Amino acid sequence: MPSKTSLHAPSRAHLSLTNVGITLGSKQVLNDVNLSVTSTSRLGIIGENGRGKTTLLKILSGHLTPDTGTVALHGTLAVAEQEMSASGGRSVGDAVAEAIAPSLEALAELDNASQALAEGDPGADQWFAVALEQAEVLEAWDAERRIQLALEALEAETNHAVLLSTLSVGQRYRIRLACLLAGVHDFLLLDEPTNHLDRGGLEFLTARLRERSGGVVIVSHDRALLADVAESVLSLDPTPDGRPRLYGDGYAGYLNRWSAERVQWEQDYAQQQAEHARLQQDLQSAQDRLISGWRPAKGSGKHRRATRAASSVHSVQRRQAALDAHALSIPEPPLVLSFPSLASSNTILLSADAVSVAERLPHPISLDVCGGDRLVVTGPNGSGKSSLLNVLAGQLSPTAGKIHHRHGARIGLLQQESELPGNIQVNQLFASHIQRLLSRELIRADEVLDLEVFGLLNSDELATPVRELSMGQHRRLELALLLASRPQVLLLDEPTNHLSIRLVDELTEALEITGAAVVIATHDRQLLRDTAHWPRLQLQ
Question: What is the CA radius of gyration of the chain?
């Protein structure tokens, strides 16, 4: 009597890519990617915006076919996309029903096999054994309860009658994530899973991913999640040979090895550039001799002149061949953040006296900020963190209380989001910003820095219209504009938003040692860990 449910075998599950490459439009997004994921893998995929992380996830899930290479999947797979369909009048209950359908089918199969076994049907014992094993693998008896617990832990909608179309993107994502975390797929693919979660949801997600049986692939900028979950890391960031790098010793190992690799890359690049410059100089010297230096002294014979000319020509040819043979095969290493020297002062630069803002910062806040101070502002969404930083910067007037800035103190604010004119090139916007700072005597002429020195934007990006920048590029430009004002107080609202992992680490190190006072408002768990020794201001 055949089983209607194929046996689920997690131990034999396997997902692999071999020499995978893909070009989208005119850009090669992925090249020569080799990857093997087992049912015990915990893989993190990292890379700056536009490096192909989501594209790779789509290839792994079978939603996108690569131009080259092969993809092999043995087992079951589920994907937690950022957007969940709400069409067709689907409800929360429909989403839950779809998630538990395999478990219900397995239980129905087990019931049928039990009935056949009770009636003594031939082959019923084997049918029953297979059906029982499948139900046990799926943990079918507990499926609906697990989803309910996950919905509650992620603070998702638990009312099955609620239509998905009435929920926000974030609310729908939490429902989808709860259904998948409660499931038992062989592989779970997650694209930026922390985007819509609060602290409790993040802790639940982390614990569930660490304990689940089945492979996990995570595309994420969340360094805390990667540190807590990832046992191997695939980096799609630039490399000397243009190929991805797989690090098998977790996120901490990735950081250590990548740091060493970049030092080597910078040394090799510098040596190659120096050798190329030397060969160019040799060629130029030989060409100069060919033009004027080969002529012998007056009175020399015709044979001597001809010999000297031929020798000079051959010298030029040899040096040209040497230069041509010396290919510049090592690309320029990634930019490194260069933080300007910011002044420090022992005096109070700004102070707040019982400030509050109606409906935005309800509880009065008093504080003093001196040069070199450090402060982290924490609190749940809506507690007024952004409002407080805007009040401290003088961008928002308090409803009650007073703000005082020391005369001449430079207060710089990096907001969560800012509006920059889009119809101007990056370098033009920066130049006009510098002129405005000079005309208002906010900085001196000897304090002006070029945009390139910050290591935030490359030469190609400088000539790009602001409206064409990615979110990450836009954020780096905002940071450059802030640093150009040479602030004595840095007020940073979620400073890690949209920045690459590499740049966030560099920024964290710079903030630790800068002479300026630093006040940060953040939900970034890794940044909170890295600044655990800083004083805290908890908003309610």
Answer: 31
Taking the C-alpha atoms of residue 104 and residue 468, their distance in angstroms, rounded to an integer, is: 49
The residues pairing with 46 across neighbouring beta strands, listed in sequence order, are 235
Residues contacting 317, CB < 8 A, separation 6+:
none
Residues contacting 2, CB < 8 A, separation 6+: 127
| Nearest by Cα to 176 from 103, 90, 107 | 90
> Which alpha helices (H) appear in 326-409, and where do they start and end?
385-393
Distances (CA, A) of 311 to 191, 290, 300, 324: 65, 9, 16, 20
B/e letters for 329-359, b = 16+ CB within 10 Å, e = fewer, are ebeebbbebebbebeebeebbbbbeebbbee
Q: Which of 290, 279, 349 is nearest to 517 (CA)?
A: 349
**What is the Cα 539 distance to its own chain's centre?**
28
Q: Which residue has the tokens 């906010």?
A: 442
pLDDT tens string 29-78 = 898 899 999 988 999 999 887 788 989 999 999 999 999 999 999 988 98
* Helix (H), strand (E) at residue 514: none
Residues found in the chain: 540
For 296, other C-beta atoms within 10 Å of its C-beta total 12
Cα distances from 330 to residues 6, 50, 196, 337, in angstroms, run 51, 22, 40, 21
**How do residues 320-343 score in pLDDT, each as one tens digit?**
676 566 677 788 888 899 999 887
Confidence of residue 4 (pLDDT cuts 50, 70, 90): very low
Strand partners, 369: 350
Encoded amino acid at 524, one letter: D
Where would I find the beta strands (DSSP E) of 39-86? 42-46, 68-74, 77-80
Q: Which amino acid is at 135?
A: A
Q: Are 170 and 194 in contact (CB under 8 A)?
A: no
Q: Around Cβ 84, how many Cβ atoms within 10 Å?
A: 19
State yes or no: pLDDT of 308 exceeds 70. no
Of 535, 520, 516, 519, which Cα lies nearest the Cα of 345? 516
| Residue 70 main-chain phi, psi, to 5 deg | -130, 155
For residue 477, give the 3-state DSSP assignment.
helix
CA pair distance 339, 453, nearest whole angstrom = 9
pTM listed for this prediction? 0.82
pLDDT of residue 1: 38
Gap between the Cα atoms of 110 and 49, Å rounded: 48
DSSP assignment of 200-269: HHHHHHHHHHHH-SSEEEEE---HHHHHHH-SEEEE-S--TTS--EEESSHHHHHHHHHHHHHHHHHHHH
pLDDT of 373-394, one tens digit each? Answer: 999 999 887 889 999 999 999 9
Residue linked to tokens 């992925």: 30
Q: What angle do CA 142, 146, 148 make, to 5 degrees?
A: 125
**Contact indicator for 536, 376 with CB cutoff of 8 Å:** yes
Paired strand residues for 73: 15
In 3-state terms, what secondary structure has residue 21? strand
Give the separation between CA 503 and CA 139, rounded to whole angstroms: 43
The token pair at 473 is: 């590029």
